[in-house]
Design goal:
This protein has six helices and ten strands; from the N terminus they run βββαββαβαααβαβββ. The chain is α/β, with parallel strands linked by helices. About 40% of the residues are buried.
């Protein structure tokens, strides 16, 4: 923990101050500051290597920070409280590889969301099973529950991943290029789903993307990163294009 920093605001879901992250001897994030309020939808824009995914990994505590502080849900993050705080965050990556021969089903993947929220050592209850079915229905994948993940299309897999995150009952959702590499039809379907879920649940969303056309209508705020540093933080309509900043070496 970093006691020299002020505690995060009580109404914030994320409060980052002076965050610097070095990986393999190189700076990936440089003195980053970011505040996200409950129910806020923001997009983090940047080219490859800008630090977008590093930011999400730092928030989730998957990589160490060199300096600075991270606050989640009004608490400074430390090694003692990180597991409990992380349970309140849903995460949807760009893609997860699945072998067509793997027996894991869509239902199994969605159930991971309940285990992430309750703890891996706890058996799922009847209430958990109800939440799994509810999340599948909300994501529109209730007819895919018995299907192996390796047999689903890219768009179907991402909807299952959204259902998994939804089953976790998150207070904040982190999306890492979740609609990239999908067909245009699948991408639009996933973005429409995200818009509907945000309006229904109003959890905070931090969406990583390099493509402005992949930003849903409810998002009003953009953060632009370049070479690990924040270059802009304000209304999406006023955000500069990524091309205006130098590409990383």
């Amino acid at each position: 923990m970093h006691p020299d920093h002020e505690p995060p605001a009580a109404d914030s879901v994320l409060s980052i101050a002076d965050l610097t992250v070095h990986l393999q001897g190189r700076p990936r994030l440089i003195q980053l500051a970011l505040q996200v309020a409950g129910g806020e939808f923001i997009s983090v824009l940047g080219d490859n290597g800008a630090g977008k995914t590093t930011l999400l990994r730092a928030i989730l505590g998957l990589i160490p920070r060199t300096s600075g502080s991270i606050g989640l849900f009004g608490q400074q993050v430390g090694w003692r409280n990180l597991p409990a705080l992380r349970r309140r965050i849903g995460y949807v990556p760009q893609t997860l590889p699945f072998d067509a021969a793997m027996p894991i089903s869509a239902r199994d993947v969605i159930a991971i969301g309940r285990s992430a929220r309750r703890g891996l050592a706890r058996r799922l209850t009847a209430h958990d099973e109800e939440l799994i079915l509810q999340a599948a229905a909300e994501a529109g994948v209730q007819d895919l529950l018995a299907r192996p993940m390796g047999q689903l299309s890219g768009g179907e897999r991402q909807k299952v991943q959204i259902a998994r995150a939804l089953c976790q009952q998150p207070e904040m959702l982190l999306l890492d290029e979740f609609a990239a590499h999908l067909s245009e039809t699948a991408r639009q379907s996933c973005l429409q789903l995200l818009t509907r879920l945000y309006r229904q649940h109003h959890f905070a969303i931090i969406m990583i993307t390099h493509d402005r056309s992949a930003i849903p209508t409810p998002c009003r705020r953009a953060v632009v990163l370049a070479n690990g540093a924040k270059q802009f933080d304000g209304p999406l309509a006023q955000a500069p294009t990524i091309q205006e900043f130098n590409r990383p070496c």
